[in-house]
Amino acid sequence: MAGSTRESPTAEAEAPSAAAAATASAPAAASVTPAAAVAIVPRRRVSPGLDAWRRFRRHRLALARAGILSLIVLTVVLGPVFWQVPINDIDFGATLSVPSWQHPFGTDDLGQDIFARVLYGGRISLAVGLAAMLVAVIVGTIIGALAGISRGFVDTGLMWLTDLFLSLPQLPLLLLIIYLFRDALKALAGPEFGIFVLIVAVIGGFRWMPVARLVRAQFFSLREKEFVEAARALGASTWRQVVHHMLPNALGPVIVAGTIEVAAAIIAESTLSFLGLGFPPDIPTWGRLLYDAKDHLDVAPHWALFPGAAIFLTVLTINFSGDGLRHTLDPRNVL
Amino acid sequence: MGRYLLRRLLIAIPSLIGISMVLFAVLALAPGDPFGDLALSPDVPPEVRETLRIKFGLDDPLPIRYLRWLVAMLQGDWGFSFASRIDVSRLILERVPTTLLVIGSSQVLALMIALPVGVTAAARPYSVFDQIASAFAFIGFSLPTFFTGLLFILVFSINLHWLPFVYRTDIGGAGWEWYWAHIRQAIMPVAVLGLFQGAAWTRYVRSAVLDVIRLDYVTTARAKGLPERTVIIKHVVRNALVPVVTLVALQMPAVFGGAIITEQIFRVPGIGSLLISSILANDTPVVMAVTFVFACLVILFNLLADLIYGWLDPRITYR
Fold first, then answer.
1. Which of B150, B206, B276 sits opposite A297 (nearest CB)?
2. A298 in reach of chain B (CB within 8 A)
3. Do A275 and B27 count as a contact with CB atoms less than 8 A apart?
4. Do B6 and B300 meet the contact criterion of CB atoms below 8 Å apart?
């Protein structure tokens, strides 16, 4: 199937690292034996202490990345409790002022505090990212599981649908849908919540395909495994086989994919806001802050730099965490 | 090769139909009535409204409306732009070349980065070069294009005054000067898009080359005394590129998304910035047509990827 070949390079990318881990631990084992071994391969000698330090360093790097990510999340979630400057406090006495103790990230053209606005925008970005990820993972898991347990035309049809969605021009369609449905949802659920639901549904609705393929591929191998066969022989219903035996075992790659989905959804939401088509203009999301700042780059670069750096750091640390999770959840990885 | 191409063309038709159905479904499900204003206006009697609805076929069953819409779209009959007051097809044809130029040169740039860096990194996995390249690739594809674009403007246009940040079509001058002005203004959009793609592709190339480089036939090629250069370029890279091309084709929709953002930032007069400006101006015919063109371009690039497979691995064409 085209599906399996397409995923292979990314999946195989981790194989060499497992091999590298094996070679790294081999000299360490050799160094336990007396000096004779050392004389034969003196250059390859790695003391257990050094090996442990390497392992620690690798963990520490992963820990540092996760630490930065949790710091961002904590700041964004708890920040407004400590930094009680209103996001729309207009102060014409301090327009476009550079960062200072009073305004750590400076102010914009209306004298509004950018730090408070970045904190507020971060909560929206993270909420959209998590909610869209949930939509994508749930839809993807259902479709992938359906395709994975049923053979024949259901599988073919669902995979055709997946491939079709993969070849849709996503950003133009996202913009088109938001353009067409914005007013209806605004009237239905209010300007903020309506747009939130729309953006989450649309971003999630266009990002479930990788998850569906992953789950389907997992199910294809899982349904032939002995323990599933045993469950089947014991008379477990298809539902029970799927929910109790196959889904829990297919979850590892889905978690990794879900992590990366959060980053992709944050970028997608920021893109929409940056194009001026996301949340209403008075809600300062990170993308919206950049959109507002882009015409004042020459006089107030700080206005664009802080929200931009916030997006970059969040996405980078989420991607790194996804990479780290893949290493930890990969059963081939000994480390 | 001819039969293979024909087969791929036939496979492309259902996906084109599928995409057009999705587009039409979005349009048909959208709230609002094209005659909404007419319905509210007290001057228009209900009979006239009914006649108009029948004339434009708004009350026909959905499949018929879809077919009529598809035929019109395929014939290039895309309607009339509300905002620009010219035919949508003319408006788009004027702008497609610019978009293709920017996307094309950025893809070339991405390839020129990803191929050498990815192959060198994979030839010596876990070396210092590999670690640095991987770190940069990770940073590169975590940086959203709209932020890189602003950073580039800030550094190269505002601080250093090297490059113009607005793309102009009305550049005067002749000969070399004209070419130079065009290249200068294209550098930043192409670089933003190309660096982002290059970072993503470097990872693909690296892992694909790593998969291939341990295979027995590579050892055979080395054992018969071929220089390492020949082994890598002729034996490893060619086979490693097959999965890379698949991933690149899969990335095409994202590339067009990136092009829309880049065009918007640097005000490149392509179809991406046309899409944004017509959405902001509520110019529905243009929005629909541009989305349709993007869909066709995605399918076209997928076909191109199929052709490249056939060239990279001739066995594929016999399957």
1. B150
2. yes
3. no
4. no
In this complex, the residue of A169, A274, A316 whose CB is nearest that of residue B142 is A316
CB B73 within 8 A of CB B292: yes
Phi, psi of A113 (to 5 degrees): -75, 120
Confirm if B27 and B70 have CB atoms less than 8 A apart: no
Q: What is the pLDDT of residues B159-188, one digit of tens each?
A: 777 777 777 766 666 777 777 777 788 888
Q: How buried is B40 (Cβ within 10 angstroms: 0-12 exposed, 13-18 middle, 19+ buried)? A: exposed
Q: Cα(A20)–Cα(A334) distance, rounded to whole angstroms?
A: 10
Task: Read off the pTM.
Answer: 0.80
Q: Which residues of A touch B139 (CB under 8 A)?
A: 316
Cα angle: B124, vertex B127, B129; to 5 degrees: 95
User: B48 is written with which tokens?
Assistant: 């006239």
Residue (of B284, B300, B308) closest to B103 by Cα position? B300
Within 8 A by CB and 6+ apart from B133, the residues are B117, B118, B120, B121, B202, B206
B18, closest residue in chain A (CA to CA): A164
Q: Give me the pLDDT at residue B250, please.
A: 80
Please, are residues A177 and B28 in contact by the beta-carbon 8 Å criterion?
no
Where in the sequence of chain B do the CATH 1.10.3720.10 domains occur?
97-312
Closest CA to B291 of A269, A174, A275: A174
Reported residue count of chain B is 319
State whether CATH 1.10.3720.10 applies to domain B97-312.
yes
CA distance, residue B194 to nearest chain A CA (Å) = 18
Contact B193, B262 (CB under 8 A): yes
CB contact under 8 A, A168 and B295: yes
d(CA B204, CA A7): 11
Is B254 at the interface with chain A, CB within 8 A? yes
More confident residue, A324 or B238: B238
Query: pLDDT: is B43 or B243 the higher one?
Result: B243
Question: What is the CB neighbour count within 10 angstroms for residue A102?
Answer: 11
Closest CA to B118 of B206, B197, B201: B206
Closest CA to A212 of A241, A270, A269, A254: A254
Tokens of B188: 């930043």
Chain A residues 202-241 with a CB less than 8 Å from chain B: none
**Cβ neighbours around B104 below 10 Å, total:** 11
Say if CB A184 and CB B268 are below 8 A apart: no
Residues 6+ apart with CB under 8 A from B182: B171
ipTM: 0.81
Question: Rounded to a whole number, what is the largest CA-CA distance in chain B?
Answer: 89
Contact B32 A184 (CB under 8 A): yes
Q: Are B95 and B290 in contact (CB under 8 A)?
A: no
